[in-house]
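Lab notes, practical 5.
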Amino acid sequence: MQRIHAAAKAVRNHFLMLPSIRGREWRNRASAGMLWAFCGAALDIGFRRIRGAVRSVQKYPALYLTDLASVGVALTMALLLRYGPGELSARPETASVLLWSGAQYLAICAFVFPLSGLYSRNWKYGSISDLFTILRAVLLTSLLLVTLLFFSTRLTDIPRTVVPMQSLLLIAFLAAARLSFRAEELSLRRPVFKSGRNKDAQGDDRIPLLLVGASDAADLYLRALARDPNATYVPVACLDRSEDQIGMSLRGVPIAGRIQDFEQVVAELQLLNKQPRHIVFTEAPAAFGEEASDALLRSAERLGIAVSRLSQMTELKRAKGDNPYELRSIELTDLLERPQAALDREAIDRLVRGRRVLITGAGGSIGSELTTQVAACDPAEIVLIDNTEYNLYAIDMTLTESFPEVPRSSYLCSVRRSQRVAEIFERHRPELVFHAAALKHVPMVQLNPCEGVLTNVVGTMNVANAAKKYGTLAMVQVSTDKVVNSTSVMGATKRLAELYCQALDLHGLETGLGPRFMTVRFGNVLGSSGSLIPLFKRQLARGGPLTVTDANMTRFFMTIREAVELTLQASAYGFEKQLGQGEIFVLDMGEPIKIIDIARRMIRLAGFTPDQEIEIKIIGCRPGEKLFEELFDETDKRISSPVPGVLGAVPEAIPLPTLRDAFARLQRHSERGNEAAVVSVMRELLPRYEHEADLKMAVRNRASLRPKNRVKAKAGKSEASYGAELRSPGS
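Output from the prediction step:
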């Protein structure tokens, strides 16, 4: 077709470019030449099409001969159905009609079938849509037969009803011949155990599976399993969301109940000697409901049944060695994924689009997700600030690859340096500021309180002051649930940062000047650097033990993406609708989860038995840790929030002059390394903050880890003198 189009275009161009002074004879010669070129291109395409049809027939010679035999059988049966056996035997002339018309139809089909594409596809993977190829071929051949008979005999020798009947019969025969390519899927035998055992050709036992979900993904998996001669799994039953499916089957696998009926179904299968040893979620567990899937996982843990999730076809993976139908262990993000709060993406887009945005801590876990989501909203410019060279390089490369059109500037900068921060603000004049830079590891900050104050308190003050001075429209501070009834230095420093932003926001409300200062508070995020899940994975890879600080310790969890999305939405509502002035936006994180339950669940999902194959070791609370976290402080006033997925808290405000004076003293004491003075100032501002017990705990924990010779050498030292040795050189 491309060559015909090119030839036709050349003809048109030659006619348009012919000078008017040329004669008709020259024009005719040119048009004849172009016509020959056009015909040559058409013939070339026709020959190529015929050669392709011949090659396709050579690939399926048996199918081609079967189709031609079906043509004769279909025409014979059509005549038989039209006249009946008795009348047909009384009409000897029908034999000659059958031979004459049959020969013509056979010749037509022999030529048209290959050109129609009946042999140019792999019918082993044929589907319903491929039936249209058969319908098209039969319709075309029938029309050609009627046309040929009309011109030769005026359709006097063959009844007109024979052609439609033979067409329907031929469609059925051609489709049946192609269904034979998928004969392995036509078995009506259910893939269940016989006499308690089900062996493959090699005599090895196959693992019985219980599928959760009877959707398209389950259908694809069962197809792949049926085609794999070396499959080591055999499905015995299926669970689904809806009661309507119960009693039906999916490719021979019975749908035995709903996901809530898991234990009952397992008991029934056990009575039939078909107890499943593996459970496979065909979709993400959250798709079946958080409560139902979590209950199933707990029951599976108790029964000792391994659980996996089927990798989805749409998931992007490395090409080498990947099987799209492989079973993979369920990630904790799958288990904790809760239904997303309704996101007002238009409000987020209005907040960011066309504005200059500055993000501190841009290379960290929260900061990098913030950066990518902000970049997706088409800002005028993104300014990245981070104190770690590699993190800054990594997020800069991410923007280069994913959002090359977004202007950006990257600065290696510590928020502790007020002059450097002010220079960046003066140069770029950001309209929105997201402050995610902080020291967040509770034990490390506990052992280095001066460093924690300099980054979390002084650094926040420097960024907020620069935002106020250089005309920023809004600043959003990322906070943590560790600030609530804090017992750690990290929690106390972040609480002070919250109070400073609250004081600036209230000051702007009173004076009508200055930017909005908003704080968003949430708990643990999955996948962040230094978080729980990577630690458990490393410990599992080493064969255990998994270390848990306390059997009763609980935490709130949320995915990084969800936390950032809700942070942006709360910021958009707060800025656009002037909501939450003097308040803290608290993300709704659901119910807290026991850490030891997560450890047991991860061991089960890895295919091991907790406390038998993999040990769980209780190591005691680390410095500054609490057994449970809260989202609201005792002094916070809880309020309702119009932002979906977000709650509201109003802390007891501290006057801005008081905070500025205290922060100046904190900065001075921290730079001198005076920890006692730093703790004293923090206690002035936060009367309920406790510090001594945590320091003693740190001393005891460190003392228990000292080498024996060091213990002997320092046996005469007091606990206080040894506590001084625990301070890092930079404190």
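Observations recorded by the TA: The chain has 25 helices and 22 strands. The longest strand covers residues 233-240.
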